[in-house]
């Protein structure tokens, strides 16, 4: 994604891409929850598992701190959810691979011309390349 934007915007582009991963979880988590637990059933305390006389009570703890979903309808939807999400992610990945492309040379040449400092200051003379600035000089520029 960074190749499509000017070098002066690489940090912005990287932060947008990384924030997309975080926002993705806020989108997919409610969808997953609704798919697996559409009736919004509550998880049982670990100490209540033995009282319920479940077949798989060895998964329960006696501390009462842990909670488990014990409803078979909820538990049976979990493997299907992984298959469904894997299929959706694979489909989205295939579409991304088909649509992805390198920027044209014309685009990258135009972006290369914008990679210069346009202000005065110590070490920041007209036409000097961004990569030639020391960290202290970068702190003194107005665009920082």
Keywords:
144 residues, two-stranded antiparallel sheet, mainly alpha, elongated, single chain, 2 strands
Protein architecture, described:
The protein has 144 residues and is an all-alpha fold. It has helices at residues 10-36, 72-99, 105-112, 135-140, and strands spanning 44-45, 67-68. A two-stranded antiparallel ribbon has the order 1-2. The radius of gyration is 27 Å and the shape is elongated. Mean pLDDT is 75; it is low at 114-121.
Describe, in short, the structure shown.
This protein is mainly alpha-helical. It has helices at residues 10-36, 72-99, 105-112, 135-140; strands spanning 44-45, 67-68.
What form results from the Cα inertia axes?
Answer: elongated
- Multimerization state: single chain
Structural class: mainly alpha
The Cα radius of gyration reads 27 Å
Strand order across the biggest sheet? 1-2
The first-to-last residue Cα distance is 22 Å
Give the biggest sheet.
2 strands, antiparallel
């Amino acid at each position: 994604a960074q190749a499509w934007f000017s070098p002066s915007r690489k940090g912005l582009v990287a932060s947008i891409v990384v924030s997309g991963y975080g926002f993705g979880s806020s989108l997919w988590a409610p969808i997953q929850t609704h798919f697996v637990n559409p009736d919004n059933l509550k998880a049982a305390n670990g100490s209540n598992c033995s009282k319920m006389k479940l077949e798989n009570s060895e998964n329960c703890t006696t501390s009462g701190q842990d909670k488990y979903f014990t409803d078979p309808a909820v538990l049976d939807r979990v493997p299907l959810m992984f298959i469904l999400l894997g299929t959706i992610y694979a489909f989205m990945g295939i579409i991304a691979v088909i649509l992805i492309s390198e920027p044209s040379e014309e685009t990258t040449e135009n972006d290369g011309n914008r990679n210069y400092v346009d202000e005065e200051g110590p070490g920041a003379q007209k036409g000097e390349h961004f990569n030639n600035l020391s960290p202290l000089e970068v702190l003194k520029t107005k665009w920082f």
